[in-house]
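Onboarding guide, step 5: your first structure request.
Type a short instruction followed by the sequence, for example:

Predict the 3D structure of this protein.
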Amino acid sequence: MMRLLIAALLVALVGGPAPATAQEITLKLSHFVPPVAPPHATFLAPWAAKVEKESGGRLKVQIYPSMQLGGTPPQLVDQIKDGVVDIGWTVVGYTAGRFPKTEVMEMPFLHTNALGTTLALQDYFEKHLQD
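The system replies with structure tokens like these:
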């Protein structure tokens, strides 16, 4: 689901070819893990670099790891909603009851491997989370 939200954001912001004087946009991304943690080091930071490269420098993603902008992990969704940040990375378990349709994906012992879990979540999204 996060991949679809990010893709939609990029399509909306990048659109088609930009004029030579295109405005540079910096998006703020906040998350709760330290910069040395695998989600930051192997996914978020490389993704931010790819966004900048593929947008020709028009889009930049400024990352705030370890809740540097304040708050707690359960508050990340509200920080996005309130405009404190543009993008947040969190886990559904930190917002118990807020996204009940996706909480099923956090049941213990449900996951056997990352690829299978990702494919299952994508299938579940397409069938049950379109609203």
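Each response can be followed by summary notes, for example: The longest strand covers residues 25-31.
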